[in-house]
Amino acid sequence: MFCSNCGKEIDNDARFCEHCGMPIFTNLTEEKLKQLQAQRAAFQAAQSKMRPEKSPPAGCPVCPSCGRQLPEGSRFCGFCGHKFAP
């Protein structure tokens, strides 16, 4: 799958582009977008209280917000949308 904003390839299950941070949605109404944003905020709050069950391999980049393993060179988490400092 490719990001409609930057055109780079992303995982098929990504909710956010790990290159530009654009949410990945199709046929989205404004009401649904607000609902998803509220769910994302609740999810991030819950994730910040949890730790990953097992550690990823040494040297592997990990999202500090949700603990997911990230592709090398990611600027945004493809799962929670967290932006990394350049």
Question: What does this molecule look like?
Answer:
- The chain has 86 residues and is mainly alpha-helical.
- The protein has one domain (1-86).
- The chain has 1 helix and no strands.
- The longest helix has 19 residues, at 30-48.
- 15% of the residues are buried.
| Beta strands, count | 0
Structural class: mainly alpha
Strand content: under 5%
Bin the helical content. Answer: 10-25%
CA distance, first residue to last residue: 25 Å
What is the mean pLDDT? Answer: 78
Could you say which overall geometry the principal axes of the C-alpha atoms support? flat
Total separate domains: 1
What's a concise summary of this model?
The protein is an all-alpha fold and 86 residues long.
Note the main attributes of this structure.
flat, 86 residues, mainly alpha, 22% helix
How are the SSEs placed, and which strands pair?
Layout: H1 30-48
